[in-house]
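re: that chain from earlier
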Amino acid sequence: MRINIIGAGLAGCEAALYLAKRGVPVTLYEQKPHAFSPAHHSAGFVELVCSNSLKAERLDSASGLLKAEMELLGSSLLPAARACSVPAGGALAVDREGFSEYITQRLRACPNVEVEERELTEIPEGEAVIATGPLTSDAMAEAIVRLCPEFDLHFYDAVAPIVTLESVDMENAYLASRYGKGTADYVNCPMTKEEYEAFVTELRAAKEAPVHGFDDGAVFEGCMPVEVMARRGFDTLRYGPMKPVGLRNPHTGGEDWAVVQLRRDNAEGTLYNLVGFQTHLTFGEQKRVFSMIPALRNAEFVRYGVMHRNTYLDSPRLLDRYYRLKSEPRISFAGQMTGVEGYVESAASGMLVGIETAARQLGLPAVDFPAETAIGALAQYISGGSVGDFQPMNVNFGIITPLGYRVKGKRNKNAELSARSLGIIEAMLKEREVLSIEDNN
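^ sequence. v structure.
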């Protein structure tokens, strides 16, 4: 049976490629280039909007563990990300355009994938995976509402600005990675106490662009606008995206009062984004206030920050641990609309949906990833009936089943959790047929 996948973002593409590799035919629907959301501008698939980072690589980080699990399970997106990576210290970051082009070309060339570029206004008959993301079109949202009245939850995401490297004043900046990890991949823009205080004062008073229904309480903590953080406390930014800890200024030999980090955004290294500076200020205010950062006084902004609607399901009431709709199991959801927050988490949900859908199509038992694994813990978090006020969640060790014994040191404990998880995945690969079928493409 052909599987209909709606949306060519991270989750939809990971699911499509997983199914195609196992011989299951897929029709992938993508509304671009005929229709664009407010935050998307490229016609390519897997267009990254909020950031170009897929987070830490270390196995004592939950994000590093999730990536390691996915690679063991045959992820298509992570090898592509590595092929399109840009230096980012201990993180995996990608050239946005290169990554998008890589995946787009691969899907278009895949014999088991048929791509249809058109906006769907109804959920198709048969097996369907809805991976339309947090910016689901109004027509598709209405179709989902008819299935799930609880689909009225929403929050807002904010996007960080990008500047050209050549316009950064390197006499007021320096190259380094926090704690000296990896290579010196970040441009660090220091601020004195006086400069920081003047900056925060202006940031807190700066004019925001109008968004219908926006208020501070609607902002999801994981992608909070920098001006909202500033309003929560004068030193909030110094303990958040502008923390100087782990950096030593080679110009002064000491630690700065505050630091704005810039991360490479393209392979050529000509564009850098302001890390943690998602914003919804008006474009004029962004230019005025962010130019108060000494190294960015004459910066050329090639993209200003924007804020857009982000919608997600009340998943514990609606979805099971396989991301299937409880009331109509032929329909699965994947990606951020399920309540997994983050690029890797979205792709992981698409992978799990792909695995489960392949198992059903091939007449094999369902694959139950336990909560001792990151991919399983995420699935059980979004489907858990014990969750009270459901909020989107990044992968973290707090949702993974504890070890049951004490390990000295947080990093040692996390490394032990990761080792246990990867051991479980490796054992499952040996035992479960659906996880070890040879690629058909």
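Residues 59 and 65 are 5 Å apart (CA to CA).
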